[in-house]
Amino acid sequence: MPYGSTLGTAVPVCIVYGDHDTTANTAVELGPVLHFSVPDLYQAIPGADKLMIRVEGWDHQPVWERRPNQMLQQMSWKWLDDKKVYGVESGSWVMDADGVVSELE
To answer: Which of 13, 22, 33, 51 falls between 20 and 30 A from 94, CA-CA?
Structure first.
C-alpha cells in the first residue's frame, strides 16, 4: 500500500463514534466480510497523529439528532481549527452524557 503511512502522519485523523452504534461496530461472528470495528480501524491507522472519541448514548446517526448534531459539529470544527477536541489531540477517549472526556481504558 503506497500511501499506508500517510494517515496519522501527514493526514491527522479524528474518529468520533457512538457507543450504541451497531452499524459501524458489528459482531465478530459475522465473519471477515461483515464484521467492522471502529476501534480496530483506529488501531490500523499507522501514524501517531490520530484521535478517537467514543460518545456514550450515541448511535450511528447523531447528525439527525439535535443535541448530538451540534456536539458533533463543534467537535469537527475544533479538530479542523486546532487539531484538538475538548483539550485532547491524540489517543483513545470516551465522552459521557455530560460532555466529560476521559481516557478510554
So the answer is: 33
